[in-house]
Amino acid sequence: MERLDGKRIVVTGGANGMGQITVEGFVELGAKIVFFDILDEKAAEVAEKTGAKYIHVNVADEEEVKKGIAEAAEYLGGIDVLVHAAGIGPHCPAELIKFEDFKKVFAVNVDGTFLTNEAVFPYMKENGGNIINFTSASAYICSPGQAHYGASKGAVTAWTRTLAKDWMKYNIRVNMIAPCIKTPMYQQMRDMMTPEQLAIHDATMKELCIGGEMGDPIKDFLPVMAFAASDSSRFMTGQTLSVDGGIMMVR
Prior knowledge:
The chain has helices spanning 17-28, 40-50, 62-76, 99-124, 147-166, 184-192, 195-208, 217-229; strands at 8-12, 32-37, 53-56, 81-84, 129-134, 172-179, 240-243. With 251 residues, it is an alpha/beta fold. It has a single domain, classed as NAD(P)-binding Rossmann-like Domain (Rossmann fold), CATH 3.40.50.720. The two termini are 25 Å apart.
């Protein structure tokens, strides 16, 4: 696995799921980490465990994002990498989606991406940098029951690709991770299924990806994240790194 010694990294959504895995793993790989979240109690546990600095930031709030990034940059002495992992992915049939729920998904997933990306720009403009946004297979292929989520990740994908071109001249690379990884959120979804639904789901997974199940956070997700955050990916930008066992195959 790639080492990240000395890298100054900001991680959003770092108190849970893949954001938490990123914070914990990157600290072990030698990075200096500041992470954002709104789950203060859970974040305090992650901060105590890792020594990473926690800042309460709602990524959909412009002022909180600006203040959080400024505080992070001061603490770290600059920012080399932004890992924007914060996001929400509710399930709901399209005909039942309420406008307020649609707006909430876009506020967190799209506005949050815009605000965090723009906020780190001044700290990367002179010396270059590395931004890693989170997209999803739902941005590329049909994901029934998640029309609003898929639309938001489609926006994130288009934004990221254009940003990669716009910021090439500043030596800032902007890539995306599209993961299909076991997380607490995924386990909660499984726990809500009936035995019959779970059997159908597991049978479907066997046809979708290598190994027949979602990837392991440590063995499958973290090494790709470490690569994306390291200098080994320095000549990659505007790319989608699909860590999904073959569910989605994109160019």
